[in-house]
Amino acid sequence: MIGLWRTRSRTAQADAPEVMLATRDTPPAAPTVADVHPAEPPRQSFAVPGGPAFARQKQVNGADDALSLPAERRSPFTPTQPVQSADSLIGRRDLIERAIAAIELERAHVAIFGERGHGKTSLANIVAGLAEEAGFGVVRQACSAGASFSDLIGEVLDKIPTRYISRADDEPGVAGAPATGWTVATATAALRRIRFGHVLIFIDEFDRLAAQNARRDMAELLKNCSDMALRASFVLIGVAESLGELLSLHQSIHRNLVALPMPLLTDADLATLLTQGCERLGLALEWEAEKLLLQLAHQSPYTAQKLGLLATVHTQRRGDKTVTKADAAAAARQLMEESRPVFASLLDPLPLDRKSPDGVIWADLLYEAARAPCDGFGWFTAKDVNVPHCEDDLATLTRPDAGPLLRARRLSGRVEFAFTRANLRNYMLLRGAERSGVI
Ligand SMILES: Nc1ncnc2c1ncn2[C@@H]1O[C@H](COP(=O)(O)OP(=O)(O)OP(=O)(O)O)[C@@H](O)[C@H]1O
Ligand SMILES: [Mg+2]
Q1: How many domains does the chain divide into?
Q2: Are residues 93 and 18 in the same domain?
Q3: CA separation (Å) from 220 to 183, 224, 423?
Q4: Predicted confidence band of residue 56 (pLDDT cuts 50, 70, 90)
Q5: For the whole model, what pTM was predicted?
Q6: What is the largest CA-CA distance in the chain?
Q7: Quick check: 233 and 109 in contact, CB under 8 A?
Q8: What is the arithmetic mean of pLDDT over 352-367?
Q9: In the chain, is it the N or the C terminus that has fewer CB atoms within a 10 Å radius of its CB?
């Protein structure tokens, strides 16, 4: 099972058929609506030619154009920002296609979940852009820490553009919050008033929704939307390892919800990310430099973006046009120094560089564990680690007095390990590379 994600995602991308996606001509708007609202101005296309796209929706005149288009950036490497445009999103074609099919064909809700920094928001941005391109109404909401169901839904309902909502005089406005706050029943009634087009509601940082019963209420609301065939679908995005961890699953919500776990990227994807970024800067990437960057990024899109940014800055400072292995190594040392304070409280109390009674130097073991091939969520077994018979030593690192630096799970009778914190694996790689003179 190890490598399932890695294999799946590589295969899916390598074998992805060139899809020709149906684009319906925009049907003429209903006379009553067209009379009232002027035609929409043309939108900038998010879609890559020939790439996956939603089929064109019936136009709702005057639909919200306010959602911002990608801003100009100084570098194509964006470690601090989620990807905004389809041509900068590397890989993920299979996930985009799955999200489109789920929303468009199945009218299902979607849950995008996975580890921090794997690219959940980036994927959601592109799906949202494609949906807007096709004429869906799109609402984007980031859940704030400790928000209640009523807070979250109130903000979402406020953002639904009025063009999508029934304008019958005798019905109250969608955002008219009940004095006692929103409940599942009142929120369902409000969403029922979406009478034009179809509205996609993206809720990022959904794992922050911590108030008691809030996730159960969300599951209930999703179920209502499906059962009543309302013109609204939800895309929930959050840090979680499983769907059940993200959402308190309603008995039969499974049928209405498509789960999209976000794996790490493949090495081939990261190579594309690095070379594409260098090309945009007019730089060449030396093969040795690429090899080192791939090794240190180890499938992490965030680390690849960060190392790409730092390495190309070094190249440009030298006034050169080729990113060399020395630039890559300098970038790696810089990232290691910048990351040191992040992990100081976790690592500094541990005797990592001393030999344990059974002869293990934890720093060496951690370096090998960080280098080990892993699945899309960072899980590996002792056999993947280039240290013989290390299962007990790895298990020791899962103890609270050892950080813990690793966590363990038993799957199909086999013990698997993963680093406990986002980016800890990459940090251990950087430290190990420095110790062994690679950088
Ligand atoms: N497919 C991709 N192609 C290129 N860059 C990517 C891709 N996915 C993610 N990135 C980059 O990785 C970094 C993290 O991405 P993003 O913010 O989307 O992750 P996230 O899973 O939403 O993280 P968090 O859990 O912290 O919200 C960003 O710098 C983004 O530009
Ligand atoms: Mg995010």
Answers
A1: 2
A2: yes
A3: 10, 6, 35
A4: confident
A5: 0.84
A6: 82
A7: yes
A8: 86
A9: N
